[in-house]
Specification:
The structure holds 3 protein chains of 3 kinds. By secondary structure, chain A is mostly helical. Chain A has helices spanning 23-44, 48-73, 82-100, 118-140, 145-165, 191-214, 216-226, 228-234, 238-264, 274-287, 294-312, 316-330, 334-340; strands spanning 104-106, 112-113, 175-176, 266-267. Chain A has one domain. Chain A contains 13 helices and 4 strands. In chain A, strand 1 and strand 2 (112-113) form a beta hairpin. In chain A, helix 2 packs antiparallel against helix 9 (238-264) and helix 4 runs antiparallel to helix 9 (238-264). The longest helix of chain A has 27 residues, at 238-264. Chain C folds into 2 domains: 1-81 and 168-247, P-loop containing nucleotide triphosphate hydrolases (Rossmann fold); 90-166, no CATH class. In chain C, the strands form 2 sheets. Chain C has a 6-stranded mixed beta sheet, sandwiched between helices. In chain C, strands 2-1-4-5 form a 4-stranded antiparallel beta sheet, with helices on one face. The longest helix of chain C has 14 residues, at 151-164. Classes of the chains: A mainly alpha, B mainly alpha, C alpha/beta. Chains in contact: A-B, A-C. At the A-C interface, helix 6, helix 7, helix 8 and helix 9 of A face helix 2, helix 3, helix 4 and helix 5 of C.
């Protein structure tokens, strides 16, 4: 099945998905259907808990889609994506906090009030996460390899300690969101509606990634990952290409974070911690790095392990560690590689 | 003007040096392992924890801190060697991403395993009786003797490492390994054994740091993680693979971090209300070493003493 | 008559105590193959680095088509029309031949920050890439991943990648290295035809190929050009015979 080739294609076509109904296509449809239908069924059966669990999986998957763009497609091993996930969460939290008690977020030099509109929050998240990633990326991408890993980790840690010691928004205790932020026309407070919103967000993030990777920009980013000397020799500087991908990646993860805060009704420095960065990486790897559906598969596996093993033992992360060790040492292509076969062109 | 007494300054400077020496113990192992084997090891903080736990347990059951410390360091070295044999040596030729994830998995296993065995509440470990006293500093302040001993141990280790690397056969092999991995094979050195030895040595230093600091703070699961990340900052600043860089970086980070936490809030009190100053000052102080790192990297992307190219 | 496309003017480069390049000047004219030869350690790689932009000279200048490029980056020089191939093949192994060549076309058009239109439907990328492959007689391999190509085919892809840039000058670093007699003959033929379109600065070990292809030869020894001329002159130069040909 791997060797399947599109014979009718004119010369030079990169591999196009031949059909939705080969093994890979079926696995992908199956994963999407599982994620969509299980919470719907839970809703019909009256188990709100599982609807929210579906939202949780969806948002973690979306955050991992962002990270996968950096690690899997861009070859930039960011160990600090919790910074964007948490920043998105804090944008939602802080904005709701000011909207709730009608206090201004800023009164000088310009007045910025809080807002409980998700549209405003999303826009602010995209903007702020983009700016943060631009600053961090601009410095970190001057380095490569282990330096890049450690520096992204260190910068995320900086944001974490800042949130921890800045007293205005709860410090290490975190900040509650008393009322879920709102959208026009829909009631975001209903678990199913909120789940569908998250699901749409995940689909959008995946569609953007997929489309982008097929574009000229994607071609340049792929070359930057595989062989940046070739890219430079061809006349394209790798640095700005990587930086833009890094920023887009952070925006996607940040948006997932904003929704995640709304799901939990709470935001705390935990979202910014390096464990969060590590777990997002784990999800990307468990699912299959550089695969469009990898983050989805990884998030399903991760949250299911957390729920099932976590129900059996308090020390479930011990087993997560063992599974992860096994996957890294012996099953490099992750769940998607196992289910759907290897990607013909990496 | 901000009133800083000389005594306070001296005291904080020594505190910074003490943090620096401890960071050096962590960072030297990390940087050696990276320099010689090209491996990034997140689980280094776990050896710190192992050293502290074994020291605490043995000290409590035998009543001797020295015995506990010896056991702690040996245990860390042993666990390090074992981890190298079972997991780490499969990772030398893998991409850094795999190394990060596998060693992240090791953290999960060590932390949750320890929690399972010893519970979540911290163990108590106090410094030995003979080191609990105070020393009078110039200016009259009393400073805990034990902290000075930590600094002394750190200096001893730094000198020992220097002599080991510059004067001994093992050191020659380590240096050869850093500059040219093919060459040590050609010298007829058993590379596998050399790697295990270096890894265990790094683990022992981390265990030593954990044991000594465990007696100062508390011994608990996850105690190695904040230190690990600071140690990363240290070796990024110093230049990955360079022991000299690790030493300079450690002292720089230790002193800047300690001084920032004390003097930044004091500085902001000059023109802010005390509550505001405490908030802004402590938030900025928490970020200070990372800002330092960013500035250094902006000028020297490979750190102050880049060992590789 | 013929116009200077690429010129090096008094380049110097020092690494610590080692003076790797000592005042090298040479030029490349329209329509010619200018070969640069020299024994191992003569400083060829350092010189190539300074031409291509991965190394900055300590002193001296590089001009491409009348424009100074001494301080420009590798990518900027490529966009101005400096195509190069590497001694060790530097292609993206998992990607198809086409994808490797297309990236040069994309760079030439200067639109790498387009996020929407899929490249595999973009005729403005595909057509010039096909043309470059056709030029190197490799169109039939367009869909093959580079990892499945023979050594000789990779060499041809390298040149095709450089051609995709519509270069003003080509810098080929030992393109014959590792090729069998058949591959060498084939590539020699292709380069001979190519030089009329784009002049080539050829760094090469294979003396037979050099003497056959080159219009002019410069000999680099210990960081300096010790001799310069056509193949007959070089063959007979006593200094060259002593320093290089080992007589």
């Amino acid at each position: 099945m791997d060797k399947l080739k599109n014979d009718s294609a004119p010369p030079g076509l990169p591999a196009i998905p031949a059909t939705w109904f080969d093994r890979k296509g079926l696995v992908q449809i199956g994963l999407l259907a599982l994620l969509l239908l299980a919470p719907l069924a839970a809703y019909l059966l009256g188990h709100v808990y599982y609807v929210n669990l579906g939202s949780r999986i969806t948002l973690i998957a979306m955050a991992a889609v962002g990270l996968n763009l950096a690690i899997g497609y861009g070859g930039m091993v960011s160990f600090g994506h919790a910074a964007y996930f948490g920043l998105g969460g804090y944008v939602a939290g802080i904005s709701a906090y000011h909207a709730f008690d009608y206090s201004p977020f800023l009164s000088w030099p310009i007045a910025i009030p809080g807002s409980d509109s998700m549209l405003v929050i999303w826009l602010a998240t995209i903007l702020l996460c983009g700016l943060l990633a631009l600053a961090i990326g601009a410095i970190s991408l001057r380095t490569t390899g282990v330096y890049f890993i450690m520096i992204t980790l260190a910068f995320a840690q900086m944001v974490y300690y800042f949130a921890n010691s800045w007293p205005s928004y709860g410090g290490e205790d975190g900040l509650p969101i008393y009322l879920r932020n709102t959208l026009p026309l829909v009631d975001t407070g209903r678990p199913l509606t909120f789940f569908l919103l998250c699901f749409a967000g995940l689909l959008l993030a995946m569609a953007i990634t997929s489309r982008m990777m097929k574009s000229r920009f994607g071609a340049a980013l792929t070359m930057a990952r595989l062989n940046d000397t070739r890219l430079a020799t061809a006349g394209i500087s790798p640095y700005p290409v990587r930086l833009v991908a890094f920023v887009v990646s952070a925006m996607i993860t940040g948006l997932a974070g904003a929704l995640y805060a709304d799901l939990n009704g709470f935001v705390s420095p935990t979202l910014l911690s390096w464990h969060m960065s590590g777990e997002l990486m784990v999800i990307v790897i468990l699912g299959g790095v550089g695969r469009l559906y990898g983050p989805l598969a990884g998030a399903l596996l991760f949250v299911m392990m957390e729920t099932l093993l976590g129900g059996l033992t308090e020390y479930w992360k011990l087993f997560l560690g063992l599974v992860l060790l096994f996957v890294v040492l012996f099953a490099k292509h992750g769940l998607m590689g196992w289910l759907a076969g290897r990607e013909p062109h990496v | 003007m901000c009133v800083v007494t000389l005594t306070l300054f001296l005291e904080q400077l020594i505190n910074g040096l003490q943090l620096g020496t401890m960071l050096f113990l962590m960072a030297s192992g990390l940087t050696l392992v990276f320099g010689v084997m090209g491996l990034i090891n997140l689980a280094h903080g776990s050896f710190y924890m192992v050293g502290a736990y074994v020291t605490a347990l043995v000290t409590v059951s035998t009543g001797s801190f020295l015995l506990g410390l010896t056991a702690g360091v040996l245990a860390a070295a042993g666990v390090g060697a074992l981890v190298e044999l079972i997991v780490i040596r499969r990772l030398y030729h893998r991409p850094h991403l795999d190394q990060v994830l596998a060693t992240f998995a090791l953290i999960l296993i060590f932390s949750e395993g320890t929690r399972w065995l010893f519970g979540s509440s911290p163990l108590w470990l106090s410094p030995p009786q003979m080191l609990t006293g105070f020393v009078t500093l110039p200016g009259g302040a009393r400073y805990p003797l034990y902290r000075l001993v930590i600094i002394a141990v750190g200096i001893l280790v730094a000198v020992g490492l220097y002599l080991l690397i510059s004067r001994t056969r093992l050191g020659m092999r380590i240096r050869a390994g850093e500059s040219d991995r093919e060459m040590i094979g050609a010298l007829g050195v058993n590379i596998a054994r050399l790697y295990t030895l270096i890894f265990a040595m790094g683990a022992a230093l981390a265990g030593l740091a954990g044991a000594m600091v465990g007696a100062l703070q508390s011994v608990q699961v996850g105690m190695g993680e904040p230190v690990l990340i600071l140690a990363f900052v240290v070796i990024v600043i110093g230049g990955i693979g360079s022991i000299k860089g690790a030493l300079c970086g450690a002292i720089l980070v230790g002193v800047v971090d300690t001084m920032g936490r004390v003097f930044l809030p004091a500085f902001f009190r000059q023109f802010m209300s005390p509550a505001e100053a405490a908030g802004v000052g402590s938030a900025l102080a928490a970020m200070l070493v990372y800002i330092l790192m960013a500035i250094i990297l902006a000028f020297k992307p490979k750190g102050l003493f880049a060992a590789h190219g | 008559m013929s116009e200077t496309v690429l010129s090096l003017n008094d380049l110097h480069k020092r690494f610590g105590a080692l003076q790797a390049t000592r005042g090298v000047s040479l030029d490349l004219q329209e329509g010619e193959i200018h070969a640069l030869i020299g024994p191992n350690g003569a400083g060829k790689s350092t010189l190539i680095g300074q031409i291509a932009g991965s190394l900055a000279p300590d002193q001296g200048s590089v001009h491409l088509a009348g424009r100074e490029i001494t301080r420009l980056s590798v990518a900027q020089r490529a966009r101005l029309g400096l195509g190069r191939s590497f001694q060790v093949s530097s292609l993206a192994e998992p990607l198809s031949v086409m994808r490797n060549v297309m990236i040069g076309v994309q760079a030439l058009q200067g639109h790498s920050f387009r996020f929407w239109k899929p490249v595999y439907r973009d005729e403005s990328l595909l057509a010039p890439a096909r043309e470059a492959l056709e030029r190197m007689q490799l169109l039939h391999r367009a869909d093959t991943p580079v990892s499945e190509l023979s050594h000789g085919e990779r060499r041809q892809v390298e040149v095709a990648c450089a051609l995709a840039l519509k270069p003003r000058a080509l810098l080929l670093d030992e393109p014959m290295a590792g090729l069998g007699p058949e591959g060498t003959a084939r590539l020699t033929e292709l380069l001979e035809a190519l030089k009329l379109e784009v002049p080539i600065l050829l760094i090469e070990h294979d003396m037979e190929a050099v003497f056959r292809l080159a219009d002019r030869i410069s000999v680099l020894v210990a960081g300096s050009i010790i001799a310069h001329g056509d193949s007959v002159t070089i063959r007979q130069d006593p200094q060259v015979r002593e320093a290089y040909l080992g007589d």
